[in-house]
Amino acid sequence: MSIVGLGWFGMELAHSLHHEYDVIGSKRRLHAQLPFQFYRLDFRDRSTLAVLPKLMDADYLILNIPPSSAAENVRDNYHQMLDLVIDRAKNSPLKRLIFISSTGVFGGNSGIVHEFTKPIPAAISGKVLREAEEEVLKLSNIEPVVLRPAGLVGGQRHPANYLAGRKNVKGQHQVVNLVHRDDLVTSVKALIKRRKLPGDIFHACSSQHPNKKEFYQRVAIKLGIEPPVFDQNDMNTGKEISSDWSKQCLGISYKFEDPFTMHQAV
């Protein structure tokens, strides 16, 4: 089991998987001792690329590197990274490649969006991820899988912290699309364990979608932070991410279907 990208989510996933599988992984920076093998891999540092064949020596590869919208040449850099991974993967023993994307590919969509909805990305990160999905799904000798998580919550991470005290926040009439890190781990484990998958694109999102304004103002009070103030003139109703099909096909249920309970596990 190989995980390229032992970041905030990848590290949690690795710790969960290593009880059942031989796990290897990569990080951009050296880390304290871990209970599994890992290598330093930074796609901007060519001297570290020699570890790629070792990371491909597995049955399953989880590619978990999000594009940085703040970086220069984000599209070119991300495609260079992806091209290297796909090129090495084609000549490896890999059976399945699970690409961790994002529901950010639906930036321009509205209404209910599900696994079969055509994405309309808006932000550069969403456009880059959608292009990456299309490249991954072209793989023929390896089974490609795309997993799109909604906004992530877990550990010390909660989006309410990013909105604390902000003014004129957009989306007063939109709903919340979130998934807890523990539930995302559950989704990845199911994608690993299922021998035959009924599709190649899956979503990970809680089933309940409270109003964004109500949610962030109530959670801010519970977390003891300053609630955000929303733009009263913004009438955009946004979108609702559905992952019902994914959970039904994979035979899983989430611990945190209600976003109001997620802060209790932070």
Segments where pLDDT lies below 50 for 5+ residues? none
Helix-strand pattern: EHEEHEHEEHEEHEHEHEH
**Main sheet?**
7 strands, parallel
**How many separate domains?**
1
Mean pLDDT: 94
Q: Roughly how much helix do the residues carry, as a percent range?
A: 25-40%
Shape, principal axes of CA atoms: globular
CATH superfamily: NAD(P)-binding Rossmann-like Domain
Task: Report on this structure.
By secondary structure, the chain is of the alpha/beta class. It is built from eight helices and eleven strands. The protein has helices spanning 8-17, 52-56, 74-90, 124-136, 159-163, 181-193, 212-223, 244-250; strands at 2-4, 24-27, 37-40, 60-63, 96-100, 111-113, 143-149, 151-153, 178-180, 201-204, 239-241. Strand 8, helix 5 and strand 9 form a beta-alpha-beta unit. The chain starts with a strand and ends in a 16-residue tail after the last helix. The mean pLDDT is 94.
SSE blueprint:
Layout lengths: L1 E3 L3 H10 L6 E4 L9 E4 L11 H5 L3 E4 L10 H17 L5 E5 L10 E3 L10 H13 L6 E7 L1 E3 L5 H5 L14 E3 H13 L7 E4 L7 H12 L15 E3 L2 H7 L16
Parallel strand pairs: 1-2, 1-4, 2-3, 4-5, 5-7, 6-11, 7-10, 8-9
Helix pairs in contact: 1-6, 3-4
